[in-house]
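Writing this down once: the sequence line spells out the residues, with the fold written below as integer tokens. I am pasting one below:
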Amino acid sequence: MKKTYAIFVSLAILAGGTFAFTAAAAKTPAELEKEKAMKEPFANDLGPDKIDVSAYPKEAQEGYKLLQAKCTTCHTASRPLNSQFTETDGKDQTARDASAAALLKSDPDIAKSKHVWQVEGGIWQRYVKRMMNKPGCTVTKDDGKKIWALMAHDSRARKLGAKKAEWKAHREKLLADFKVKFPKRYEELYAEKH
């Protein structure tokens, strides 16, 4: 009887292990990316996953729809919408880089708060391309341009100018809440290393 029970338990464990392996193997690349994203949170994830884009240019509004429909396959919309990434304006990469350098030079608050604002001339362009190369991503080149238009415009509209103080308070609250909720991950991502 004990031997039969031991064999049964062994078979059940083996079958369960096989089932778990089969279930994991059946996941799409996008599902695996989303699992990874949820296991490795950022402060951004604690923020809202929707914003009002009604006053944004048409291409940015289209990018917002794509962000909500396609990017959320691999991570929440909160992740990019609450990011510190801030892309400056300009007709080309050189002009955007010059604008970023001028902003960082003229505004010490923005320059010293890298977890609130990470200002670069092409940061959203680079990140959208990076995400497009992830396994399972269905964002086309045209989609990517619209998502980039959204994120670049949004980073100027909500993080700079008249909205600067509001953004700073929002981002600092996300960081403080994240430190409480995920202290180990906070240390890994945001603590100043000397």
